[in-house]
């Protein structure tokens, strides 16, 4: 009974979100199915209160409608939708390139100045879905790496695509983080009760962040992939 009630509440919120986002009632289910690359039958079950999307599909649905998964689940009261958002959505996915360098070296001092967007990279939504596993475009940013401590994995001058919605250590991986007053891109790994900071370039030693010093660690983003410049000069 509880599950049925949750499905019905989700169905109601979905309909309200579609109304505000500007999706006309006629053809609404087919429209969403096409945007999300799903079958109309799968989408119809959401509107009929028969099922609720799983996490990845829920986040994609929220992105299409301009709201949040928390709102559709009923965990948040504010939908955050810009009226007629969906009617303005095109088949494009824009990723902002930011004017900041993350250090794969001894660390880059950070300033309090606002980090500006210098340009944007545009993808089709289908290509972006493959690259970023359905993450909303607002979560993805691009920054340039300086320094050679991650060389072999991330080289100086490479651009990295990061998920700025990740603001804490959630599993072993490569992160952009501030420690003290310096900005780094390094591999973080939990070993017993210590967080190990690893440079993939073997000439750099690993170092540890003790529990007593964790308040100096601020995770900015998690690295998803890199784009190498790989210039070769012949003259």
UniProtKB/TrEMBL annotation:
- Per the record, the domain of life is Bacteria
Record-annotated membrane-spanning stretches: none
What the entry lists under PROSITE patterns is as follows: HTH_CROC1
All residue ranges annotated as the HTH cro/C1-type domain in the record: 29-72
Q: Which UniProt keywords apply?
A: DNA-binding, Transcription, Transcription regulation
Q: Name one GO molecular function term.
A: DNA binding
Pfam families of this UniProt entry? HTH_3, Peptidase_S24
- What's the protein called, per UniProt? Helix-turn-helix transcriptional regulator
């Amino acid at each position: 009974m509880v599950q049925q009630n949750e499905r019905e509440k989700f169905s109601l919120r979905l309909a309200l979100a579609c109304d505000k986002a500007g999706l006309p009632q006629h053809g609404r289910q087919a429209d969403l199915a096409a945007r999300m690359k799903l079958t109309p039958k799968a989408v119809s079950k959401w509107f009929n209160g028969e099922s609720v999307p799983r996490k990845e599909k829920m986040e994609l649905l929220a992105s299409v409608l301009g709201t949040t998964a928390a709102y559709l689940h009923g965990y948040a009261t504010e939908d955050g939708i810009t009226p007629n958002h969906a009617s303005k959505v095109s088949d494009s996915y824009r990723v902002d390139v930011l004017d900041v360098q993350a250090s794969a070296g001894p660390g880059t001092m950070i300033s309090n100045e606002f980090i500006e967007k210098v340009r944007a990279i545009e993808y089709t939504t289908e290509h972006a879905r493959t690259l970023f596993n359905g993450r909303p475009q607002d979560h993805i940013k691009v920054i340039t790496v300086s320094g050679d401590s991650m060389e072999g994995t991330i080289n100086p001058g490479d651009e990295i695509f990061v998920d700025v919605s990740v603001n804490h250590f959630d599993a072993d991986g490569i992160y952009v983080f501030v420690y003290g007053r310096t900005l780094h891109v390094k591999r973080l790994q939990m070993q017993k009760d210590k967080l190990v900071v690893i440079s993939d370039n073997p000439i750099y030693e690993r170092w540890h962040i003790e529990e007593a010093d964790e308040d100096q660690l601020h995770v900015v983003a998690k690295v998803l992939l890199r784009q190498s410049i790989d210039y070769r000069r012949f003259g």
